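As a warm-up, study this chain.
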Amino acid sequence: MTLSASTRLGPYEIAALIGAGGMGEVYRARDTRLGRDAAIKVLPAHLSANPELRTRFEREARAISRLNHPHICTLYDIGHQEGIDYLVMECLEGETLAVRLGKGALPPAETLRHGIEIADALDCAHRSGIVHRDLKPGNVMLTKGGAKLMDFGLARATGLAPAAGALTESPTASRPLTAEGTIVGTFQYMAPEQLEGKEADARTDLWALGCVLYEMATGRRAFEGTSQASLIAAILKEAPRPMTELQPLTPPALEHMVKRCLAKDPGERWQSARDVAHELEWITGAGAAATVDGSAAGRRRMAAGTLLGIGLAAVVLAVGFFLAGRLTARRPESPTFTRLTFQRGSIGNARFTPDGKSVVYSAAWDGGLPEVFETRADLSTTRSLGLHGVSLQSVSRAGELAVRRQAEPWAWTYGALAVAPRSGSAPRDLLEDISYADWSPDGEALAVVRHIGSEDRLEMPPGRILARTSGWFGDIRVSPDGRRIAVTEHAAMYDDRGSLAVVDAAGRKATLTSEFTSIVGLAWLQNGSEIWFAAEAGSSRRNLYAVTLEGRLRNIARFPSSVVLYDVAPDGRVLLATQGGQTGIRGRPPKEDRERELGWLDFPWPRALSLDGRMLLLDDIGETGGSSYTVYLRNMDGSPPMRLGAGSGYALSPDGRWALAVHYGPPQRLVLIPTGSGDAISLPPGQVEAYQDGSFLPDGRRIVFVGAERGRVRRSWVQELPGGLPSAVTPEGAAGVATSPDGRWVAAVTQDSTIMLFPLQGGEPRAVAKLALREGREAVSQWSADGRTLYLAHEGTRLEVFSIDVQSGETKLWRSFEVPDPAGVRVSNFMITRDARSYAYGYMRFLDELYLVEGLK
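Now compare it with the structure written out below.
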């Protein structure tokens, strides 16, 4: 029942409706006796109709009215008139915290200030025997005088037995979840014991306070779900994403404090709001000592020719340490940080020069090709060495540079190893298919990771194999005495999980640690006693660690952002970089003439479009950390996506019932994930051990995918569903999954950059067109509906789509796309429907920063 203006409730005259919710309507009113404004909350009829509950409510309301605190909305009066029960409260001017959060996260100082005010208000209530039970942003008003805690409509006095019925009904749930009790509150802010129907106490409010502080600091809710059931499951079982992954300026002490508020077991939480207030006050007073933490997302390995791996793995949501040039690691004696770079882009590698006075590094700025720079450690000069399209690998004792040719900026690729002097003359090529290299201490030999077939080999000197893996080797560093090589080893392609090992000259390998989900960057101390490395454990940020040759592990420092270690000088100075950036998805739905932003969570990437262009298959690593993908299905109209399961998506079946995906393992395997009910189906791998892409044939009974056998080069395969074995359809080095509408041909690009059509059921392959390689990457995206045209996407700092006539090979520009913020953005994974009416693509930007650090021990 809505009250009209001028309606009288006792001495109060209604002026206007302010708002409405599950617990009633709130009106602005005028107290005719005292001449002041008030807020009147009219209780719903189901609450007023029960005399027992009304009596109980009045008893508890009177208890609340005794609360007198500057940050609690004062309860002036209660009343009953003609079947209407109402509360009379202080009328506040301002906006609710919920409205403010709609504009984004609060600055750290503001979060701390309002957090102290809310905690003080809760402490006052708890000391008076009142538990709020519905603390949420909508029940906090931000006024000129600070935060005001409102709406004690679900509060109860401690010591009173919980009653069934209206008083324990939630605004979002009208019946109990368990037989033992009922729930009360709003789901996103409800503690596990509330969801289980157990009695709430002060620690329940502290859980909600933790949720509110999390949201204030990050702009995101601590627990989210696509359904009520998934939200409840998240609250009961999962931990929220680290706050510093979402907001790098969050003080680590605040994150620690919030984590304790959100402990699943009430006994593990703070035990009083007073303790929380004191902790927040200490954090506020600690100032710069409470340094910010950052996020961690693994730098993922990728196969040559694709941006997906590094695009999803090197990306983190944080944007560096600070906007200033100095910051503090969490140690009693703070190291000093000097920022060496001031442009937007990606840092490839960095090394001290032999005299230690300068730093050589490679970087790709604003979407361009990588190049090599030299800067003095005192920041007096920075110059380009004239080496473009290469990534630095190592600097020899004589100052000679080892570089890897890299035609695609911001992409991990195998490339030619070359050497060049620091003078800037052209590099001289030595070897092909190199991923990492490092000089020996005497500068006479190189250790390399070389890719042969589908196998990585550790060689020193090149040609002498010390170790091999069907997965991949990461960073390598030769020890100061030249007798050992430190290397990271990963069992499966695209998977960051692995171990740190040392290999000696005889090929004997000893694993030092395997407890990290990602290890990025290695460096030996000058005396060879320890190996320093950057790594992340579980879903934590990437920090700096050290391990001895006996396997003794220690944490050197925790930093405000995800870091990559590049070098340690003999005097202990360290080169490291922060990683920052983002990915996104844009696309045009059918029957619309404008693009939509279609990303989801933190690190989304597009994988496939349905035939009608209405559904998008996408990946995200934000949910599971830097070593695993999660597959989602999202309507192109922008409605929330549906989580399908773990894996990286490849394609949607013609009928939309199945998603083809890969589980990276190890071992890797293709799976069919139902888009509705049912269980995932693993497909027989045959001899294939590594996968890259896949699609369904038009009949829906077969798939085509790109894969490789052990020790062999990738090619295209066809496989019957669900139990057939893969059969190769292209020679090694020719890979593609775009199949013709009649199911007869697959278009693949060969190693010499020729687009070929390979028959799926007998016949001879034929060439269509020769690609003119340019900066970026060109990939066949789709066939036209009539089978006469291939759509080819040129992906890089710009996005151009070409049409290729299948018969004549004639190539024309079909459309050039405006990409968001073209300076510094890379575009990849363009996909389009056969009728060319719907499309999607992914984009990424990097914001890395290089630092010189002194004082780490």
